[in-house]
TrEMBL record:
This is Integral membrane bound transporter domain-containing protein. It comes from uncultured Propionibacteriaceae bacterium. One of its GO terms (cellular component) is membrane. The chain crosses the membrane at residues 42-59, 65-83, 90-111, 117-141, 162-182. Residues 195-237 form a coiled coil. Pfam families: FUSC_2. Residues 55-174 form the Integral membrane bound transporter domain. Its main location: membrane. Keywords: Coiled coil, Membrane, Transmembrane, Transmembrane helix. InterPro entries: Memb_transporter_dom. It is a multi-pass membrane protein.
Amino acid sequence: MDPDGLSIERMKLRAHDMSERTARRGRESAQERLERLRGRSFMILQCAVTAGASWWLAAEVLNHPTPFFAPVAAIICLGFTFGQRLRRGIEVAIGVALGVLVGDVFVTFFGTGVWQIIIVCGLAMCLATLIGAGNLMTIQAGVQSIIVISFAPRPDQALDRWLDAVVGCALALAMATIAPSAPLRRPRLLAAALMQEMARTLSAAEDALRRGDQEAADAVLDQARRGERDLAALEEAVKEGLAVVRYSPFRRSQVSSVESYGGLYEPLDRANRNLRVLARRCAVSLWRRQTVPSSYLAMMAALAETAQFMGNELYDGRLPTAGRERLLELGRQSSHLVLNENLSAVVILAQLRSIVTDLLELTGLSYAEARAAIPDMD
């Protein structure tokens, strides 16, 4: 085939590869959005039901004609309690109720206007600050006071809107104690997903090195870097889960369970950092055309299988203690491998051994115990 023909073929292959990557990213993005919706489905349902219930309560029990602030206050409070639970929910509730109260009192005597908005906003925020409010409560007080003064009440309304806000906030805080089980499962599922993604990254790195595929190695590095975002999600989920079990009277018996999954974060963080270094060195070794011994690649494949096994254990609701023997055996085998003469191969082996140490911590060993369990190189 002539050179021009070869160039055209390469361009076609590259275009096909780019289209596949674009489609894959599109699927991943859609999957992430669906996962986000699934994760927030309970919160959305909770907000909708509480908004309706607070309107009904203010309208039917308190006999208020249009209790606008009841569902608004309920949604604001529940929106902040989800993930932060009662501490921030109470803070928001106080800010909302205080802002509505100040606005209601002020507009009843002085009406609405520019100077009224300036004074009532400043007054509400000053009062919130004086009672020891944080930024969130202070801002809510200012916002709610402005909303109230913008909608002037009828003479017979008096403090109806403040009572509506109190009803909405109280109902929201009561609903917040009915904790869903999702925040308790989420840290475990995220940790499992991290382990399985780590397994896929190790497998992809091993495959790229065996085939000598530079582009595949670059893709592996991008794949390894995505773990940082997943770790941030895990850290947030652990905090949310702990808040749920500590403040909800229905979930306190599960504190130790959530804490045990929370303990997975630090070793997973270190393992992910070591994985990124390994992926980067794999790309460098292919760029420099340096050979990585097949024994190192075999260890990489075995470590990928072990990481996949541990991820499956987490998905099934078990801490991955069953992976300890596999990891100890990998550590023993790695100590007998011959050090290669090129730097990239040595770094890859060192990172594999470091990842084995990190994963041993997931099985219940301390850092010192895990480090001592990996023999020195022969």
